[in-house]
Amino acid sequence: MDADKDNANPTIINPSDLPSRRRSAPTAKRPGIFDALAPAYPSLADPLSSPEASSDSASSDEEREEIDEQEVYDLISTISDPEHPLSLGSLGVVKLDDILILPPTSPRSRISTVRVLITPTTSACSLTTVIGLGVKVRLVNALPPRFRVDVRIKEGTSRTADEVNKQLGDKERVAAAMENKSLVNVVNTMLATCE
Amino acid sequence: MSDIELYLFEVDKNKAEAHDIAEKSASRLEAKKLKLIDLITSLEPYINNKDDGSIRAKSVGYLADVLAFLPLKALSGQERRLLCDFILGRIEGDLEGVGASARALVALEGLGKWDVETVQRVMRTFIDNTHPLRQFKLQTERYSIVQLIDLLLAKYREASRHLQEADQEFMPSFISYFEGEKDPRNLMIIFSLLQVPMTEWDVHANAQDLFDSVFNYFPITFKPPPDDPYGITAQDLKDRLRDCIAANSDFAPYAFPQLLDKLDSTSMNTKRDVLQAIQACVLGYEPNTINLYSVTLWDALKFEILNVQEEDLAVESLKSLALIAARLTDSADGPLNAYLRPVIKECNEHLEDAPTKQSEASGRILHAIAVSGYTAADKVVKGILPTLFSLYNGSQSITKRRGLLEVLNEIVAAYIELGASQPEAKIEALQASAGDAVDAMIRALVSAPKAEVSFRLASLKGLAQLVSAHGVLSEKESGRAVDTVTDIVLHEQLEGHGNIRAQAIKALTDMAHSVPHAVRDRSLPAFMVELPDVPAEASSPGPVLEAFAQLSTERQIFDTVALRLKNKYNSARHQGAPQDYQRSLLLALLYTFTFGTPTQEDGITRAAYFTEYAAPLVTDVASSSEHQSDSSTLEIVGRIVNVLLRPQGIHLQSTVYNHNVQWLASAVKDTSQAMNLAPFTLHYYAALRPEVADAEDIVFVLKAQADLALNATPASKGADTVLRHISLLVNKFINPKTMQATLEASDIEVGALLSGIPSPQAISVAFAVVKGLLIQGKTGALATKYLQALLDLLSTQGRGIAQRFATLLTPDDILSKENHCLVSGLYKQKIFNQAVPFMTAAVRTADATSKPNYFIALSGILRWLPYSVIEASLPSLVAPLLQTLDLTESTDQSVKASALVIFESVLMHDSTIVAEHTASLVTRLLNCTAGPTNHASVRAKALQCLALAPRQLKREAVVPYRRQVVKRLQACLDDAKRSVRTEAVKCRTAWLGLDEGNEDDE
Questions:
Q1: What is the DSSP letter of B74?
Q2: Which stretches are tagged as biased composition: Acidic residues (chain A) (predicted)?
Q3: Contact between residue B860 and residue B806 where contact means Cβ atoms under 8 Å apart
Q4: Rounded mean pLDDT of B148-175?
Q5: Which domains does chain A have, with CATH numbers?
Q6: Which of B499, B714, B807 sits opposite A42 (nearest CB)?
Q7: Pick from A14, B243, B277, B667: most CB atoms within 10 A?
Q8: Which residues in B lie closer than 8 A to residue A39 (C-beta atoms)?
């Protein structure tokens, strides 16, 4: 079947409806519009009291911001679809709910797992494997090594799910795929839109 | 030798000399020293030379040159006729020198107008005897002929037209005459001269040939040579060619099919040219002609919009569609209907599966067509809205409804644009559906789940637009719209996802522009209900107050908003509301005067605002200064006074100054009170024009402030304000000529302050004084001396001094031109030129303990300088800046950050400068990415710099570090801070990307 005819008119999610950290985490101290009225710069009397430095030092040592599902989503939602000039996020191929971070299985292990389930735009989408590969490459490059990346096709969304899952799960085959120059080019174009 | 002999001798070797000879002949001819007949006779042997064509050509050239130098009336009418006959006669028998003949004729024409017969003879002679033009190999020859014909067509319209009417054979040979011309200079003229027959002659019979003769050149792919002296661009040719294509309605049967055929081209530039040409045709051809092709055009153009290849092509296609609608509007109803019927049908079909790219494109198409005029807009509304609403009501899907609303919004937006440009509104059709639209949108805003952000935003935008479309909504309907939006602003307390308050405030402000009375009568009272005089413990009116203040950006309701705020403040004050609340109200007032749009008189804010709003506040401060102890409130009062007082003229300012000078003087004397009052006095004095204040009073105030600053304890809060006040007074009020004396009189002469072992307070005051002087730039020697004194301290003193250097260039909104300060245009360069070379030199010899001082001071200075200032000195700065990155103390973080910012700019703009330091730069940047010794901002900035390296530096320079960088960045991917991790991902991607080039090369 012609790839273009798979799904010529997918539903597009409006950007303002996509999950983002700004919305999911209510910010406690939102800067008011009046704050700009009295700008603060490092002062003559105490040059070290610059506001940026103080607010920074206050928070930087305190808390660690853990890598969470939203962060993983932000990493992969901006990947472009190989056939539409749209992002995987706006096509609903990757969804926040389908990302799961599993903590280390035993207290001695440091290895966490990131599981991403992919929903192809149609069950017959012929480029599912490439999309999966793109997501996998992106995460392997962008997450620290203590994460194991597990990319699968969401159950019941693709006719070729089993086959694709096998391919994506197999380290050797992923490595072999990344030796294929034309495949590398496709993946790189997909990832080019990532920030 | 005769002139002709001399000329022939020189012409090939020395053009200028040959010209001089021709000019001499011309002046002799003019002075009657030479007879025309003799001149012609002298040409005889050469112009008829049987053996050598080039000599014949040059002889004609001589004649042309001589004629070109002759002034008006030098030749009689008979002489000119004879010459004309002579030249034309030659052409019939001999084509050598035809270009020169054309030049000679142009010169002759310049000496006296031709009659019809001559014009026609000249034209015929050329078309009959020199056809086709391309037989002449020299561009200059053809150029002269083309110029001659251009002249004939431009000046003798009637004569040349009669020629064509009298002889059917003339036109075909005229058209084919220019065939095959390739030179852009000639083409520019040919395209231009062809416009005459195209627009003025009856060319119906020859339309196709005429059209093809120019369309052969489409699309223009000409690229001017790199050092083209003629300056003809492809765009010039395109413009002229386009005018030709669009010149005559008779071209339409050939133009549109061929243009649309070329629209399928794979070249984007060709498509751009086609769209430009189509637009020109739509404007140029008769509406009746456009009517014949309107649907064909739609069928082709729509693909550019429905499946966007390039955004600009879509925009141009939309423009073309709109132009067609506009052209057809002028004629009867039928053509426009015939054009819009398929458009509306197709758009309606796309609406059925909204939201898709196609439904979005339909919105754009309908917007473009509706914007072309009320008639078209009316038809669009009648054709689309019934379907749109039935789909809307027939669907439960919020996504689909959102898609439909977006299309509706596009159509309404067109009405707003129409309303702005065309006063005679025709809005009945939209009015009929507006009620339904308002209902649907209000329902969406009130009842849809709050998480459906895009749906609610589309409704919000739609409401604001409907209210803004002039006259569309009834008063009742706009009232409901205003109420709904007001309610969102006041009562939706959502945080995070679903919060659309910011957009709602914006929508309300937009509405206030169109229906100020509705907002004034309905929204403002609702806001006041939410703002208590004395807030109850739990409630926080902050967001309401912020929203209220933002309404002041609309001029028509500004006065009401400001007045309500003032009254609210007064009642809050009298009823003893908490200080925080009072301060918020004052902040809101300050916001309205700073970012709102108060009424202006003669370009400045109305003086009445000062007397009504600021003056009472000043009176309050004066009378209650003892118990009103909150200095942060006093600062806001000061800022309000400042913003209202500073633009006012001397007269008002003097009155205000004299009114307040007394109590301020006594307040300043009292040390405890003065410190508290400092934020107010600072802003008050900043507003005054220097000529208003009394010199003695200023010295008195300066002295008092100096006292305060020198005796301040390190912990005292107002010390900074006092120092800024000193900078202000020094900069603005003190006569530069008596500067040193005044400083001495006030005990703040910098030399004295820094003598011995200066206290931290003295150093602060010294920096404040120097800052005021440096920005002023009027006391060059003194400022230089003082700055040097400060620089000298670097080698002996601790880090405190070094850190203070950053304050010299720190922006200060007090020291500004708006506050009547003296701000030298070059002060940044001046400080740079004095301080930086000194420090870069001193650091080389400095010992280990004072070295960091120089790094800190240096980056403190560089931090605030624009890149253009430091650009030239970068090579000498790189080394110290690299060492700055090695600083490790926690107080040095901002120093490192500013060094990194400079490296970022350098990598962006002048990466060659750091190229030789690649190794040490990469290592140091990597070191800066390690936590927790580096702050998050430093880590992130270092990663940003590092990410630039693979892109900005030469590949072979960075490739050796790829392994190392990629490996070490793995740690950064696990940084504690999310923002740092984001940068680490970007950075690592950039370095991983280096790999690809490698493979391509092999």
A1: S
A2: 59-68
A3: yes
A4: 89
A5: 66-191 (3.30.300.130)
A6: B807
A7: B277
A8: 813
Half-sphere exposure of residue A152: CA atoms within 13 angstroms, side-chain side: 15
Residue A50 is predicted with a pLDDT of 44
Task: List pLDDT tens digits, range B625-638.
Answer: 555 557 778 888 89
Which residue, among B656, B741, B732, B746, has the nearest Cα to B699 in the 3D structure? B746
Asked if the Cβ–Cβ distance from A142 to B806 is below 8 Å, we say: no
**Three-state DSSP state, A175:** helix
Q: Verify whether the Cβ–Cβ distance B989 to A194 is below 8 Å.
A: yes
Q: Tell me how close the Cα of A162 comes to any Cα of chain B, in angstroms.
A: 30
Q: Considering the entire predicted model, what is its pTM?
A: 0.76
The span from the CA of B304 to the CA of B263, in Å, is: 9
Structure-token match 């960075």, residue found: B958
Q: Which of B978, B987, B988 to mutate to test the interface with A (most CBs of A within 10 A)?
A: B978
CA distances B81 to B66, B73, B113, B124, Å, are 16, 13, 11, 16
Whether B496 and A188 lie within 8 Å, measured CB to CB:
no
Residues in A closer than 8 angstroms to B974, CB to CB, are 67, 144, 146
* Token pair of B561 as six digits: 């908003």
User: Helices B139-155 and B157-166 sit at what angle, rounded to 10 degrees?
Assistant: 100
Q: Could you report how far apart the first and last alpha carbons of chain B are, in Å? A: 73
Of residues A44, A184, A195, nearest to B986 (C-beta): A195
Chains A & B: contacts with CB separation below 8 Å: 144
Residues of chain A in contact with residue B935, where contact means CB-CB under 8 angstroms, are: 53, 56-57, 60
Kindly report the number of other CB atoms within 10 A of residue B851's CB atom: 19
Using the predicted structure, report yes or no on whether residue B672 has a pLDDT greater than 80. no
Q: Which of B536-550, B608-622, B729-743 has the lowest mean pLDDT?
A: B536-550
Cβ atoms of residues B384 and B366 within 8 Å:
yes
Banded model confidence at residue B12, pLDDT cuts 50, 70, 90: confident
A153: β partners: A118
Residue B86 three-state SS = helix
Note whether B976 contacts A64, CB cutoff 8 Å.
yes
Structure confidence at residue A59 (pLDDT): 46
- Cβ proximity of A138 and A174 under 8 Å: no
- pLDDT band for position B272 (50/70/90)? very high
What ipTM was predicted for this assembly? 0.85
Tell the residue number behind the tokens 């203040």, with chain if given. B549
